[in-house]
């Protein structure tokens, strides 16, 4: 196991230890969240889980966790998920796995959110990791041009690129497409978030602002806890 994977595992296990019997738990998506789901299932608690993607729902069910749809449970007590970048104030970029819309829906429905990550994820400024932007498929090329304008309003010259896999556009679990914008530096995340959500055709973006209550970061010396 690589150092990064060991750090992800440690963070996921630390988060699983915070879950209490009887909770409704939001399950994130991605390689770090997988460690959390496995550790959570191993505890054998009486839980109801809400998954942020089909892949996570299938993993959770295979491990014996009870999975329900968002809105079919009492309020979500705790959501645990990974991130692609963790910036100042626990501002995040998420969406490398293409589940950003479902992730944000679950996060915003949760009383508390914990982000888990390896030591490479914290940064002094968001933007080195390309920002995912989920758009409806109809007219997406026009939407991409309007995304360019929104980025330009925030002094970002990046041109968003349609995410492809095996020669075909990537489809999210909701049937949408994803554009990735290599912003470089996002000096005003809130302003960019507002500009992107103002574009008709944009379903959601990967800026998760003022949502994380705590970060658990795996490192060489163990797991460190960060707060906004």
Written overview of the protein:
This protein has 228 residues and is of the alpha/beta class. It has two domains: 3-123 and 209-219, Rossmann fold; 131-205, Alpha-Beta Plaits. 30% of the residues lie in helices and 25% in strands. The chain contains six helices and 16 strands. The protein has helices at 3-16, 31-43, 54-62, 100-108, 140-153, 189-197; strands spanning 24-27, 48-51, 67-68, 78-81, 85-86, 92-93, 113-117, 131-135, 161-162, 164-165, 168-169, 177-181, 202-205, 207-208, 214-219, 222-226. The strands form four sheets. The protein has a seven-stranded mixed β-sheet with strand order 3-2-1-4-7-15-16, sandwiched between helices. The chain has a four-stranded antiparallel β-sheet with strand order 9-12-8-13. It has a three-stranded antiparallel β-sheet with strand order 5-6-14, with helices on one face. α2 links the parallel β1 and β2 (48-51). α1 (3-16) crosses α2 (31-43). The longest helix has 14 residues, at 3-16. The chain starts with a helix and ends with a strand. 49% of the residues are buried.
């Amino acid at each position: 196991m690589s150092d990064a994977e060991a750090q992800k595992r440690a963070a996921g296990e630390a988060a699983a230890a915070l879950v209490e019997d009887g909770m409704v738990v939001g399950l994130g998506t991605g390689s770090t969240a997988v460690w959390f789901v496995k550790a959570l299932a191993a505890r054998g608690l009486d839980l109801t889980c809400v998954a942020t993607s089909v892949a996570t729902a299938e993993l959770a069910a295979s491990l014996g966790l009870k999975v329900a749809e968002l809105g079919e449970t009492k309020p979500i007590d705790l959501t645990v998920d990974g991130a692609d970048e963790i910036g100042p104030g626990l501002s995040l970029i998420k969406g490398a796995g293409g589940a950003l819309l479902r992730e944000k829906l679950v996060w915003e429905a949760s009383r508390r959110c914990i982000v888990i990550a390896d030591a490479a994820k914290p940064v002094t400024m968001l933007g080195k990791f390309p920002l995912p932007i989920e758009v409806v498929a109809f007219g997406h090329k026009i939407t991409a041009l309007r995304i360019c304008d929104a980025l330009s309003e925030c002094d970002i010259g990046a041109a968003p690129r349609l995410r492809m896999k095996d020669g075909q556009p990537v489809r999210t679990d909701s049937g949408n497409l994803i554009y990735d914008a290599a912003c470089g530096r996002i000096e005003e995340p809130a302003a960019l978030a507002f500009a992107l959500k103002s574009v008709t055709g944009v379903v959601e973006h990967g800026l998760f602002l003022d949502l994380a209550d705590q970060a658990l970061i795996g490192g060489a010396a163990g797991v460190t806890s960060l707060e906004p």
